[in-house]
Design a protein that fits this description.
By secondary structure, the chain is α/β, with parallel strands linked by helices. The chain contains 9 helices and 11 strands. It has 2 domains: about 100 residues, Rossmann fold; about 110 residues, Rossmann fold.
Length: about 230
């Protein structure tokens, strides 16, 4: 099956191979584009803290965030680095560092994975998209959180509807990518509409689009569920 996927161009490495492993063809369309953060100061501050070893844990939520952070500095060797997903971890390795891998970016997963974080200072390099749930979940366990936008996402102006003529399914990889897609779903079609995770699904439902599949935050989960249908 040909599957449209709203993946950021800078984060699309390996997507075609992944979809082929599940017997499908990826049609990548970037409804968002990456730009520098509105205010670069927080990232510079976080990078400086990391280089001085003033963090206990450093979290990267994407490979693009890794690139943007390492343009500033390298973290001290005593810092525990946690990457969301293997692609992010691979990017960390490219800069000569190692990291632990957490598969899913959610407050619940971080709470369980990080363990006792009382008194710890945790840095997060992320997209310029607020995540108050994660911030609260970490601080409520006694951690001090220093978060910094490494990049921001802007609408690319690409509309997804044209490419859907050749697709049997579409995967929206974030609430922002869905909101910027101009998506119009015709229920007379056999198109499978997929949300990568719960937050994306919530954004879709708020606009009257009911996803046929909701993944656990990874493309792999979406493809596995699709193949079982």
């Amino acid at each position: 099956m040909k599957i449209a996927v709203t993946k950021l161009r800078e984060k699309s490495e390996g997507i075609h191979d992944l979809f082929r492993r599940y017997g499908h063809e990826a049609l990548i369309i970037s409804t968002m584009t990456a730009s520098d953060p509105t205010d670069p100061a927080p990232l510079s501050h976080l990078a400086k803290m990391a280089s001085k070893g003033e963090l206990d844990i450093l979290i990267f939520t994407s490979a693009l965030g890794v690139d943007k952070f390492f343009e500033k500095s390298h973290p001290a060797k005593n810092i525990r680095i946690v990457s969301v997903g293997p692609k992010t971890a691979k990017k960390v390795e490219e800069y000569g560092c190692s990291s632990e891998v957490i598969e899913t970016f959610s407050s619940e997963h971080f709470e369980q994975y990080l363990g006792d974080i009382r008194g710890k200072i945790i840095g997060i390099a992320r997209a310029e998209v607020p995540n108050p749930e994660l911030l609260h979940s970490l601080s409520s366990k006694g951690a001090t959180v220093v978060e910094a936008p490494a990049y921001r996402l802007l609408p690319s102006g690409n509309c997804i509807n044209g490419i859907l003529n050749d697709a049997g399914a579409v995967i929206f990889t974030s609430a922002k990518s869905f909101g910027s897609s101009g998506f119009i779903h015709d229920r007379t079609r056999t198109l499978k509409v997929i949300a990568i995770g719960k937050k994306t699904a919530e954004a879709m439902r708020s606009q009257g689009v009911i996803p046929d599949i909701v993944g656990d935050g990874t493309l792999e989960s979406c493809l596995e569920i699709l193949n079982r249908m």
